[in-house]
Amino acid sequence: MWDFKYLQSAEKYNEAEMKTRDRILEMTLKLFNEEGVAKVSTNRIADELGMSPGNLYYHFKSKEHLVEWLLRRLESDLTPFMQSGDTLVALDDMWLSLHLSFEVIEKYRFIYTDVDFLLHEFPRCGERIRNMTLSAVETARTVCSNLARSGVLKAEGAEIDDLAFQIVFTSTCWSTFSRLLSQQDASAPGYAAYHVLTLLSPYLVEDQRHYMNYLRGKYLK
Amino acid sequence: MWDFKYLQSAEKYNEAEMKTRDRILEMTLKLFNEEGVAKVSTNRIADELGMSPGNLYYHFKSKEHLVEWLLRRLESDLTPFMQSGDTLVALDDMWLSLHLSFEVIEKYRFIYTDVDFLLHEFPRCGERIRNMTLSAVETARTVCSNLARSGVLKAEGAEIDDLAFQIVFTSTCWSTFSRLLSQQDASAPGYAAYHVLTLLSPYLVEDQRHYMNYLRGKYLK
Q1: Which of B162, B165, B173 is the closest to A176 by Cβ?
Q2: Of A9, A15, A39, B73, which residue is least crowded by CB atoms under 10 Å?
């Protein structure tokens, strides 16, 4: 289970300490994204910040704690999109919401590229990532159901379940795949959005499909 | 560039040595799949085999060489599917070919789950993985074009390109996603095949779609 007591302990820090914590988390995020969680030690992070390992340890007791705090930030950044499922009834609302959430995912991309390492090494973080992913599938299902109800999308039951799965799969794994293909630009959030819109395309009613092809086309320029 | 001289040097080994090489590669594959490339050292592999590090070094000079040889095996196992693109004109040929190639991918799954690490650490292997992935996209495009020509699939031009991309993306990244969702069974090759068939579904002509739903349904039992 998540250790809330530990997480809330941040409140004990004063303003200067909070700034230091922010600097540490920002550097950690940068290094994790660039080099992967496995390779970056807490000593390395301290070193990059010109800080003693003891000072870093005062703020974060281990690499696992750093990952937990970054996960917490990702969750908080994604919350608006997770909660917007019920209000998205038009295609361009959905598209905007997708695009913005892909920007968040790209910002914390180490979580998805290093997911195997995280699941193995830090089971508590793994559990948190799983729950977040399952919530995202739930949100995607709600959005697709609403689009179907408002006549934008023609799909039902199992089709909606499969679509919701594929939307979240594409959103979370696309940046790994695009790096594999060596397409530097392809890891841009827009390209992930393009591929999610492509998944929806065959299920859209005709006039909406034309509109979506217009939206998708903008990503390819 | 790939060092063919090095690769062909395997021929210098006698039969007993070839068996030792096989044992080393099999143990390496097992450990890479279970624990990830980053964590498993060559000393650890030697240790698991009850072999001296020097003996392992005689056969493989570094972790990178081990990865290269495993990649070579993956490529050779995938060759029949890569070459079958032109002969696949019916839905169940394609389904069988997909299913069998997913079994191969699952066998060497560390390559896809650790792709970021491999691209960073072993650029020569990264290049090889990229070329293999681009060939797979090419094969998928050929298969989809053939299915369209034989009237099984209704898609053209850009739709076929997008489909080919998404088929290879799903094939190579699905096992990572299914582990993220903690669905042990979901990493089975059948589940990946189910999701690729789902991608094709909306593009199939009606009687073929019914047949495919029957094929897909078998994976969910």
Answers
A1: B173
A2: A15
Chain B within 8 Å of A220 (Cβ-Cβ)? Answer: no
Task: With 0.95 as the threshold, say if the pTM is over it.
Answer: no
Of B116, B120, B170, the CB nearest to A176: B116
To the nearest 5 percent, what fractions of chain A are helix, strand and coil?
80, 0, 20
Name the most confidently modeled range: A104-113, A179-188, B64-73, B85-94: B64-73
Fold of B77-219: Tetracycline Repressor; domain 2 (1.10.357)
Residue B66 pLDDT more than 80? yes
Q: Does A123 touch chain B (CB under 8 A)?
A: no
Whether residues A36 and B38 touch (CB distance < 8 A) is answered with yes
**What DSSP assignment string belongs to B109-168?**
THHHHTHHHHHHH-HHHHHHHHHHHHHHHHHHHHHHHHHHHTTSB---HHHHHHHHHHHH
Q: Which of B39, B129, B177 sits opposite A169 (nearest CB)?
A: B177
Handedness of CA B134, B135, B141, B144 (dihedral sign): negative
Gap from B177 CA to chain A (nearest CA, Å): 6
Q: What fold, for A4-64?
A: Arc Repressor Mutant, subunit A (1.10.10)
Question: pLDDT tens across B38-54, in order?
Answer: 889 999 999 999 999 99
List the single best residue of B71, B169, B212 to mutate versus A (max A Cβ within 10 A): B169
Assess A187–B contact: CB distance below 8 Å, yes or no: no
Residue ranges of domains in chain B: 4-64, 77-219
Sequence-ordered list of residues with C-beta below 8 angstroms from that of B150, at least 6 positions apart, any chain: B89, B90
The interface predicted TM-score (ipTM) is: 0.78
Pairwise CB contact (< 8 Å): B36 & A181: no
Going from the C-alpha of A3 to that of each of A68, A200, B60, B189, the distances in angstroms are 10, 39, 45, 36
Other CB atoms closer than 10 Å to residue B56's CB: what's the count? 21
Give the fold, CATH level 3, of A73-220. Tetracycline Repressor; domain 2 (1.10.357)
